[in-house]
Predict the structure.
Amino acid sequence: MKPVNPIIISLAMLASIMLATPALAADGAQLYKTKTCFTCHGKDGKTPILDTYPKIAGQNPAYSLQQMKDIKSGARANGLSAAMKGVMHLVNDDEMKALAEYIATL
Amino acid sequence: MKFKIFTLLAALAFCGSAAAWLEGGGERDEALDLEPDLENGLDVYEVCSGCHLPEGWGKKDGTFPQLAGQHRSVLIKQLADIREGNRDNPTMYPFALPRAIGEAQSLADVVAYTEKLPMNPDNGKGEWPAGTPEFDMGKKLYEDNCVECHGKDGEGSAEKFYPKIHGQHYAYMLRQFEWVRDGKRRNANPDMVEQIKSFSNKDMQAVINYVSRIPVPKEDLAPSADWTNPDFD
C-alpha cells in the first residue's frame, strides 16, 4: 500500500476546519440561550427585560464583541453594566465572537 | 388546590423581636396568601430558567443558587429583599421587578412552581468529607449555632421564613453566609447575624462544608443527576 500523501491529509483537515466555520452562527444561537443572554436582552435581541437595557439585534459584530469584552473586563462599568458583568465569566473569547456574529443576524 | 398556609399575623408572632426583619411589602404578604397557579408559574419561570436552569438546580460554582425545593415563603421574602436593594446582586435584580415576574399572583405562582421541583442530587460540596477534622468541626458548629433555626437536617422552616439549606451549593452558601456575617446582606435575620458574628473564615468554611454534605431526604431529590425537567421538552 502506498503511504497516504501528507498534502491530502492536510487538505482534508483544512476542509473539516472550513466546514466547521459556518457552525459559528448556529453555535451563537445556542450560546445566546444557554449563557443567559436572552434573559436580559430578549430572545430576539430587541425586547430587553427593562426599558433601560439596550436592544442589541443587528449590531455590527466588531462593535458588539468589543462591548462584551469591555463589560467583562470592567473597562465599561457604568451603573447598568454590573448586571451583565455577573454572567460574563460564563463565556470565553471564542464564544463572545460567535455571539457577536449571531447578534448581528438578529 | 388550597394552599393558604399562614397569615402574616402568625408569622410576625413567631418572629417576635425580629419583626422589623419581616416588615414591609404588602405585596409579599399578599403573595403568601394567594392560591398559586402552577401553569402560570411555569410560564413565569421560563426566563428564570436561563440562569437557574430548567431544573431549578443552579450552578455548582455558586453563581446561581438552587431554587428547587426551597420554601415558597423564603423565596417570596428574598425576592422582596432583592427588589428593595437589600442584597447586592445586580444580575438578579431586574428579575425581581414586577416587569419580569408580574404582580403578587405571578410571584405566588413562580415560587410555588420552583418549590415543587425535585432537588439536585449532586449539589456543590465543600472539600472535607466525613471523617476529616474539618467535617467534625463543622458539624459541632452547626449543632451549636444553627439547628435552632435551620433545623437538625438543614430543612429550615416555611412558617418562620428560615431557608432550607441542605442540598444548596457550597460556593453560593459560603458567599451568602459571609455577606450575612459582614452585613452586606442588609435585611438578614438579626438573630442569625448575632449568632455568627464571631465566626472566623475557617469556622465559616467548616460549617458550610458540613451543611453542603447533609443528606437531602430521598423523596425531595430527582431520581438522578441526569434528570431533566419535562416541562421544558
